[in-house]
């Protein structure tokens, strides 16, 4: 049977694989061990920044061998396609009091740094026992505001990427690896 035109279109946009599923899983295993050691049984709250971090967080929490709770915040910083709006909108706030926890913000990617800079100071003001930032990807050269994560699994060049939670116009989050997005095809 012939493929539906929209399936063909969808597949055409998936570019070169930048990070394989195996590489991601290996790095997550290491990060999980690091986080487990760092807190040594103290109460951890993983805060996932939706939507992009949902896949990463699901794997990271299972790589942590310590009492760990999860919570989510939903922010929107990209309005359409591959262009950043520069603004950070809190679409859904946390439903927990962070002051009882060692908080680990879990992000999919740091690009300009605006989202995390904003979220970091917002959560810091709520007095967590400690505050750490872990990101799956870091596009360092794109930084507009200064922000350095505590743990970064992969540094990537200035490509727009999709997969493993990351989207373009809400699609491709379900790929199990990170690929370049073919913008001009
Ligand atoms: P920042 O505020 O510019 O650091 O943007 C961070 C957010 O932009 C991330 O949480 C992603 O949702 C989105 N983003 C940045 N770069 C990419 C990319 O290459 N692919 C998909 N989303 C991206
Ligand atoms: Mg995100």
SSE order in H/E notation? HEHEHEEEHEEEE
The whole-number mean of residue pLDDT values reads 93
What's the tally of helices?
4
| Percent of residues in beta strands | 35-45%
Number of DSSP-assigned strands:
9
Q: Strand order of the main beta sheet, please?
A: 4-3-2-5-6-7
Structural class: alpha/beta
What does the radius of gyration come to?
17 Å
**Low-pLDDT ranges:** none
- CA-CA gap between termini: 24 Å
Overall geometry: globular
Explain how this protein is built:
By secondary structure, the protein is of the alpha/beta class. It has 4 helices and 9 strands, in the order H-E-H-E-H-E-E-E-H-E-E-E-E. The chain has helices spanning 5-12, 21-39, 54-62, 114-124; strands spanning 14-19, 44-50, 68-80, 83-92, 102-110, 130-138, 151-155, 161-162, 178-181. The protein has a 6-stranded mixed beta sheet, sandwiched between helices. A 3-stranded antiparallel beta sheet has the order 1-9-8. Helix 4 links the parallel strand 5 and strand 6. Helix 2 packs across helix 3 (54-62). The radius of gyration is 17 Å and the shape is globular. It starts with a helix and ends with a strand. The relative contact order is 0.20. The mean pLDDT is 93. Bound molecules: inosinic acid (IMP) and magnesium ion (MG). Inosinic acid is lined by residues 52, 77-78, 84, 107-115, 160-161, 166-167.
């Amino acid at each position: 049977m012939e493929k539906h035109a929209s399936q063909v279109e969808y597949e055409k946009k998936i570019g070169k694989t930048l990070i394989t599923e195996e590489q991601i899983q290996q790095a997550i295993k290491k990060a999980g061990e690091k986080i487990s050691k760092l807190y040594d049984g103290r109460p951890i709250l993983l805060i996932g920044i939706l939507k992009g971090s949902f896949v990463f967080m699901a794997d990271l929490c299972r790589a942590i061998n310590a009492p760990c709770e999860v919570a989510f915040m939903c922010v929107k910083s990209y309005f359409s396609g591959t262009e950043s709006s520069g603004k950070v909108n809190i679409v859904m706030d946390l439903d927990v009091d962070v002051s009882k926890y060692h908080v680990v913000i879990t992000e999919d990617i740091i690009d300009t740094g605006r989202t995390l800079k904003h979220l970091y100071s917002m959560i810091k003001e709520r007095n967590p026992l400690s505050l750490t930032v872990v990101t799956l990807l870091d596009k360092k050269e794109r930084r507009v505001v200064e922000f350095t994560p505590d743990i970064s699994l992969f540094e990537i060049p200035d490509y727009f990427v999709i997969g493993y939670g990351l989207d373009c116009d809400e699609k491709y989050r379900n790929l199990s690896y990170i690929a370049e997005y073919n913008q001009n095809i």
